[in-house]
Amino acid sequence: MSTIVYENVGVTYESNGHQAIKNLNLTINSGEIISFIGPSGCGKSTALNVAAGLIEPSLGAFKVDDEIITKPGTDRGVVFQNYSLFPWMSNLENVRFALAQKADLPKKALIERAKELLDKVGIKGKSQHVYPSKVSGGMQQRVAIARMFALDSPIFLMDEPFAAVDEITRKHLQQLLLDLWEKEKSRKTIVLVTHNIEEAIYLSDRVIVLHEGEAILAKEITFKRPRNRQSLEADTEYLTIRNQLLEAIEGKV
Ligand SMILES: Nc1ncnc2c1ncn2[C@@H]1O[C@H](COP(=O)(O)OP(=O)(O)OP(=O)(O)O)[C@@H](O)[C@H]1O
């Protein structure tokens, strides 16, 4: 069980007095996938950082299973835009270290498992053994995703996790995430920040549109799973939802 609640959450940055989140009320059920979407600066990352425990709400409370959260914890795995890998560890060590937090396995088994996870996200061979700074941003993003899978927390918080990768890799990683989510009995609760409407619809049970810090639309996405990208995109309901979200993002609701 990992139910997330934003209870009248407001965030004002002290440095400039900017009210980035205004009175956000949102319950995310255990095992649900939601996306925050909206124009640049609408408060998506701020909302996710509250969930990560990196920003304390100025008003209201953020809770996981009724417990008020004010700091990061191993119950929440994160992938941020800036990858947040340990720069002094190789890509493989980053993932092995995460695995070691969870599994009491001999070092050799941890390394094998870390290699498997990196293979899955397409980081193979020599790229596994170099420091994160020696590979591209897109590759670092994949290592960060492998590390999040390794940590295996009940909650995944992901800020534009597929932004720095090419379109084919993006689709592959989206599928990997869904496969992992769908096969688990006790499903992860996933909160995603994205600029990409198609990605939000394809992955989510609900899409929350933020505008100037306010949640102006919470759209349920009820297409049954597993979803097929092509038939989804040909569905008239899909196009209606897409337009509705687009209008909300553009501030027309
Ligand atoms: N540390 C900070 N101090 C002051 N203002 C901030 C800080 N971080 C964000 N802001 C401001 O708060 C607002 C919301 O920022 P946030 O990064 O949450 O938006 P976003 O929707 O994630 O944007 P983007 O899509 O461009 O990443 C913006 O106006 C931003 O300039």
From TrEMBL:
Gene Ontology MF terms: ATP binding
Q: What is the protein name stated in its UniProt record?
A: ABC transporter ATP-binding protein
The family database entries (Gene3D superfamilies) matched by this protein are listed as: P-loop containing nucleotide triphosphate hydrolases (3.40.50.300)
PROSITE patterns linked? ABC_TRANSPORTER_1, ABC_TRANSPORTER_2
Membrane protein topology class: Peripheral membrane protein
Under Pfam families, the record lists: ABC_tran (PF00005)
User: Where would I find the ABC transporter domain in this sequence?
Assistant: 4-237
Cellular compartments annotated? Cell membrane
Q: Which residues form a coiled coil?
A: none
| Keyword annotations | ATP-binding, Cell membrane, Membrane, Nucleotide-binding, Transport
Organism per entry? Aquibacillus rhizosphaerae
